[in-house]
Structure formats: structure tokens, C-alpha cells
Amino acid sequence: MATTFVVVPTFNEVDNVTRLVTGVLAVLPTAQVVVVDDASPDGTADAVERLGDPRASVLRRPGKNGLGAAYQAGFAVALERGASICVQMDADLSHDPRYLPELVSVVERGADAAIGSRYVPGGACVDWPRLRQFLSRWGNRYAAGMLGLAVNDATSGFRAYSASALTRMDYGSVVAEGYGFQVEMTHRLVRCGARVVEIPIVFPDRTAGESKLTYRIIGEAFRLVLKLAWSDWRRGHRRRL
Length: 241
Ligand SMILES: Nc1nc2c(ncn2[C@@H]2O[C@H](COP(=O)(O)OP(=O)(O)OP(=O)(O)O)[C@@H](O)[C@H]2O)c(=O)[nH]1
Ligand SMILES: [Mg+2]
Known about the structure:
binds magnesium ion, 8 helices, single chain, 7-stranded mixed beta sheet, alpha/beta
């Protein structure tokens, strides 16, 4: 049977994290949850430890250092502890644990990665302001179009990876953060010939805590797509010569 680890990056998620961790363990009782907390001043890490559940642990990092680095640290711990499947999800309850069994089972049945997608039939974003919907929808079209990714939701942070795909992708060398991190990971999956399956998810806006999304993160993702498209083009060009 697969050994599943669920990696959850957190910064100031005390109002969500307990519900999230118990929700995950209710649907995946044999999984391990690794919360990667960047010294949240609101006591998020303590809230997880207070649960006293041996299946939930906290990786405490000394300060806020970005989402990409938090995922990388969480994946490293999961792989070191013997994960065969690594899930990543947000703590703010926009990623509903009810989708976990399907994401995991798709990878168990042979996919390299399963992505919880808002932009396939049956998927949706609810309660988001129009501007967020617009940015997310067109950001995904831009990334997929520029990079030739046959993935409808390359910015989704709700995913399951097989351990072998993570290793093959050399996830530790990904440099982007935030949405850029998800796009760069998707680009690597596609470039290394991975089998990626999208599962429809309904994604509600967070109801507690604050979003960490900034214009800097959006700008970084925009530039990253250009950079990856340019390096793809150069690689293709070199092959043709
Ligand atoms: N460890 C760590 N976690 C982070 C950091 N930034 C964000 N997070 C967590 O990453 C997850 C996603 O962050 P959100 O603020 O929900 O960002 P988002 O989902 O892209 O944006 P919203 O849809 O507006 O909520 C949440 O669980 C955050 O607590 C960080 O620098 N370090
Ligand atoms: Mg969120």
C-alpha cells in the first residue's frame, strides 16, 4: 500500500489549521500530515502540536521564507520518511479534504501526478471577487498557451505526486514561489513526460485568515512563464540546428 504524506505550508492559519488537519486525517486515516510553518506569530504550529496526533507533525522554520521553499522542505521530509505519494494543499480550507481520496487513488493507479483543477468540467471557483477570477483564469490560459502545457489549472496548489515523479523533476532546484512554483512544477512534469491527470474541484475562497497573495507573486509568475518559454524555444532551436 502507498505511504501518503500530505504537506501543508502555513503562515498565520491558526483559525483553519486544526479543521484542516482533522479533515485530512478523517478521509486518509493512514496518511501522515507535515505542516510546514514559517514561525507564524499566531501560534499555528502550537495548534497542530496540541492536537497530539502522532500522524500530524510540524516542520518549524525560523521565519517567513516563501511558499516554494516551504513545499520543498516539506517534500524533502516526506521523501526522507518514506513517502511513495506526496500531496500538497493549502491550509485555508479552499482545498477541501474530500477530494483527497481521488487525488491519491489516481496516483496509486499509475499517474505521476493528479491536479485538483478548477478549470475542467465539474470544477469551479466560488465566492472569489471578479478580479481574482479573471487573473486566475487568464493567468492559466497564458501559462498553458505560452508553454504548450495540456493542463487547465497549472497554478493549482492542490496536487498529489508520486515520489518517483518528484525525484525525476528535481523539485529541489525549482526557484519560483507562490503561483510561479506551481507553474514551474507543472512545466517540469510535462517536460519529463509525466502522466498528469486533472480532477475537478470546487474551490471556495478562504473564510478565515488573510490571503498572502501579492502583486509581487503575480508579477513573478508572469515573468517566469516568459523565461520558461524562452528557454524552451532555445532548446528546440538548438535541436533543430
Ligand atoms: N510556510 C509558509 N506558508 C505560506 C507562506 N505563504 C503562504 N503560505 C501558506 O500557503 C497556503 C496558500 O496561501 P494563501 O494565502 O491561501 O494564498 P493563495 O491560496 O495563493 O491565495 P488566496 O486564494 O487569496 O487565499 C496557505 O496555507 C498559507 O498559509 C510562506 O511564506 N511560508
Ligand atoms: Mg488560499
